[in-house]
Amino acid sequence: MNHTAIINIARDQIGMDEDAYRMMLARITGVTSLRAMTTRQKLDVIDELKRMGFRIKSGGHTLPKAFAPHQRQIHALWKSCYRLGVIENSSREALRAFCKRVIAHGHETVAVDPDLLSKEQAKPVITALRAMEKRGMSAQERAQ
Length: 144
Hints:
Blueprint: H1 3-14, H2 18-29, H3 39-51, H4 69-83, H5 92-103, H6 119-143
């Protein structure tokens, strides 16, 4: 589903009137029209709508959480780091926060979802997770 459709569904689900909707768009992106927004801006709007209570409902079909190889690799490395004790929280929210620190450090308004990363965007996240995993394996070997 495209981002514009998700935003419109979220707006209806929340029950937001036209004026409040336009004000929210301007506050988040500085633009009042979805057509004039970039994909990144639309994702920021979706994150704000989620913060306001929007929940994505599946239409009865379940899709894998990550379907591209580099996305699956991020999730696998994250779980491996958790099993090794390198990280304490294995939740998706913690993974999103980690990805944000790696990719958009210093940009508080940017939301980063590992399932939406391109292959190039995922490279620094994968590199950081591999280094963490390696440290965890070394620490585990020393402990034995």
